Amino acid sequence: MTTLVAPEPAATATRPTPEELARHVSLRATVAQTLSMAWRATLKMRRNPEQFFDVTIQPLLFTAMFAYIFGGAVSGDVASYLPIVIPGVLAQTALTACMATGVQLREDMDKGVFDRFKSLPIARIAPLAGPMVADLLRYSLAAVLTVAVGLAMGFRPGGGVLGVVGGIVLTVAAGWSLAWIFTWLGTVARTAQSVQGISMMILFPLTFLSNAYVPVDTLPGWLAAFVKVNPVSHVVSAVRALMNDGTVTGEVGWALLGCAVVVAVFAPLAVRSYGRKM
Amino acid sequence: MTTIPCSATSAPGERTDSPTPTPAVRAHGLVKRYGSFTAVDGIDLEVAPGQVFGVLGPNGAGKTTTLRMLATLSPIDGGRAEVFGVDVAAHPHTVRQLVGVTGQYASVDENLTAQENLRLFGRLLGLDGRAARRTAVDLLGRFDLEEAADRPISAFSGGMRRRLDLAASLISRPPLIFLDEPTTGLDPRTRGQMWDTIRELVDQGCTVLLTTQYLDEADQLADRIAVIDRGRKVAEGTPDDLKGQVGSSTLQLRVVDASDTTAAAALCRRVLGEEPVATPESGALNVALTDPDRAADVLIALREERLSIASVTVAKPTLDEVFLTLTGHTADPTTDPTPDQIPNATEARS
Fold first, then answer.
1. Transmembrane region positions (chain A) (predicted)?
2. Of A89, B50, B318, B344, which has fewest CB within 10 angstroms of its CB?
């Protein structure tokens, strides 16, 4: 079978001199490297299926729990609360899922393989962005399950299939953008536990001080002021309009703008602190 | 394990028309500080292409830190470093294309199988899916890992991990390879295999910069050795230069009948031309050996003179002895020499 073995590439003749080597990574290479890192993350997920616990159990639990606890108090009955609470739970599940992105990155960075990633001629952003691309799977699963539980409980979205899909896509996009905050935390914190702790402190005000579970007009003025600027509120409002009415409101624009700002601020911060670490 | 890929005979810095090739590594006054602690305190290194350069020192001497700075893994706090003439701090991306790094702790992904690891690194280095798979299979074969190709790394022995780690460093066929303590924690047989692998790399024109705690490893592999202590270079030279400073090895001899000691001493003087030193133990002698093989001459002569041997040992100088000679303190960085340590150690060496 020796004849079938491909000959070694001729490194002598074609090897470029140091002056000819690239000084930076091209955008195309960056995308390819990010996808390779995403492939690694999906292999890891397949080996550790417990990574899917938070995104499977939580939608089931939270949707049922919040609907039955707050339904009567907020909307009079559970059925009329569902159109309000499903987009809220969607946003919260996405946020919780992206918190895990940061925690897992921190755990991963303590391993020896990150040394090799740093020593390779690859874009510094690839080891961070790769797992986030793979986590789109987790966000999507969480979002689909939440809607499915809602449907089972009697949620009949007025926006139809397109509206629901639009709402899910927006939620996943928002989760991915906000995950950069937790990724940045992952690169600055010392341990995975501290990432978890800090993330909870960010997560709770962001989700509960929003319109996710209650109408804003029931809140005192000072709190309503914060709730109105909270990007999670804009995401929830946009998703409600999409799912319940099938309309694309200005809230979608605000939500996307908020997400873009978060990525623009936290992605460079994360790459910079990752480059400095160790 | 037949041939191992590496950059070929001409390293990129090496030009046929230039009389002095660009050094593979040139470092001047390298400094690394952690807060008020200076881990690396002004180290100069120059490694010629095709050379195996050993950085020898005890734990905590700054070997790994130096290597990490040269490999762009750790920022340089002071001084300058070049790899094949490319400034490490200014153009890290270019340097990363010229070096392969194998760390002290195997830097492969525990969650992936051996083959998946190599495919991942191949993809990251710009190979397409098919080429990455082919390279992975090829390297696994060369490093005797094909049977373990689909096993998770967590089931690998220490030696297999190191081999996989080294294989991963060779995917891009880099002209310069950094090996951080390549055999620490390996059993003697695996250690010997690792040495053979490193020698093969050099035969194919690779330049190797390795760190080690073992004098015999540096001696076996390196063309040139720098001894590092507390962040400073305390000596540099060929293995022979260094051993010349401490004596190659010592013959420790004890005769059965203590009254034969004088005769045995005279015999050693005659055969080796070195003055034997009597140790406190009765009938025991220590003689410095420039060549360990000369011990056999002494043994034959003893047999001819019918002097009975109680015990005989040929001891190589230990890293500790090298250190003591070069720095005046032992290799343990936490202990400074105390008055009672010095005479003991001097006696052992004499």
1. 52-74, 80-103, 136-155, 161-185, 197-214, 252-271
2. B344
